[in-house]
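Replying to the earlier thread about multi-chain prediction with a worked example.

Input:
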Amino acid sequence: MIFPEDFVWGAATASYQIEGAVKEDGRGQSIWDTFSHTPGKVVDGDTGDVACDHYHRYKDDIGLMRELRLGAYRFSIAWPRIQPDGAGPVNPRGLAFYDKLVDELLAAEISPYATLYHWDLPQALEDRGGWTNRDTAYRFADYAAAVHDRLGDRVHTWATLNEPWVSAYLGYGNGVHAPGRRDPAEAMRSAHHLLLGHGLAARRLRPGTVMLVVNSAPVLTPAQVGDPSAVPSEADAAAVHRIHALLTRQFLDPAVHGTYPAEVLEAAARNGGTEHIRDGDLALINAPIDLIGINYYNPCVVESGPGLPADAAWPGSEDVRFAAADAPTTAMGWPIVPDGLSRLLIRLSHDYPEVGLMVTENGAAFDDVVENGRVHDADRLAYLDGHLREVWRAVQAGADLRGYLVWSLLDNFEWAEGYRRRFGIVHVDYPTQTRVLKDSALWYRDVIARNGL
Ligand SMILES: OC[C@@H]1[C@@H](O)[C@H](O)[C@@H](O)c2nc(CNc3ccccc3)cn21
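Result:
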């Protein structure tokens, strides 16, 4: 299975998950600093205070990327390093870190892909309402412009947001993520303002290549997981359609087509109203973009039935039961369904033919053991191999798929799960910060060298 000649092979990380140095060089506090230091929010009370100490070790980490022959490296920029209070003058020492990071990547012949927002909102903006406050969208666009002014001569591929669904629904809906608020109406307002920020920022990143990164999944009934030809009941088909609208179309339809699905407007009307959706907003959100970044880990399995408990509410999903898949699972409990990726990519290439696609995250957490300086992570290697075969199938089916970025380069701070869940193809021993290439990394290096499987 050989991929197109210009297919991009890379890896992805995010600032709060790997950098550490949370008080260094003028960095301001983020909502994840606040959240992780709040007792009970993160497993084992873990925080990103040190993480992988990438802020100090980035040159050695880029050496590992070069050893793997990565063509691209997707990282995120910590807004609180650039504008400690989320607005106003740029912090030169904060920007200088990314300036050096980019130059080191280019020297290693690795293309820098920068994500402007991977969840670490400046706490000062959250103190003024965060993403429930429309002004935050405008602050985000100013931040994006300031970063692009400095790095845009060398960074040519930009992601505005990472997974606005997660930011909105886990941050403001069920409170599992920072800032830990639990209000369905706030979640819907936040989703809209995140999209507004995306649209405003996208216009200020040209002439770069601009993408929106979403967590997406094929929405399937339990029977469809193993049998794509399975015909769902009318009620189950309605559940599938509704969740696809709320999970994926809520973000891609506005960004690519300038429209909201009816299901989203109905959910908003029932949860706080739609006053936050102002005339002209959808035109602002619908800024031209070049790529959709797809973060895929597993399908979303649903059927009609009682919705989530009130405290886990996802507005609009009241009559949907989230079901288990008949499949093995990763250490996160997520089902392993490789063909879910090809089914998703082919579907999205049909629904949004105007834009290209890139797999911006795909990977798996499994418990790793270091033995004699090696990590024989056969489960992770099998997961990646199976999913890459599906990526190849999607390309063969005609999807305009530009590349694949594995999540993640390094074991890192896995949000509310802390450090106990390891997604890296490179093992990190946190007490010593020693890096070890896992078998999956050695395998991935060979895939890159062959440009295929
Ligand atoms: O959980 C693994 C990664 C995470 O480390 C990344 O920062 C984030 O971009 C990411 N998104 C997903 C898929 N969406 C998701 C996020 C949080 C909870 C449940 C699903 C998985 N991951």
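The pocket of IDE is lined by residues 14, 17, 162-163, 166, 215, 295, 297, 361, 407, 414, 423 (CB under 6 Å).

Feel free to reuse this layout for your own posts.
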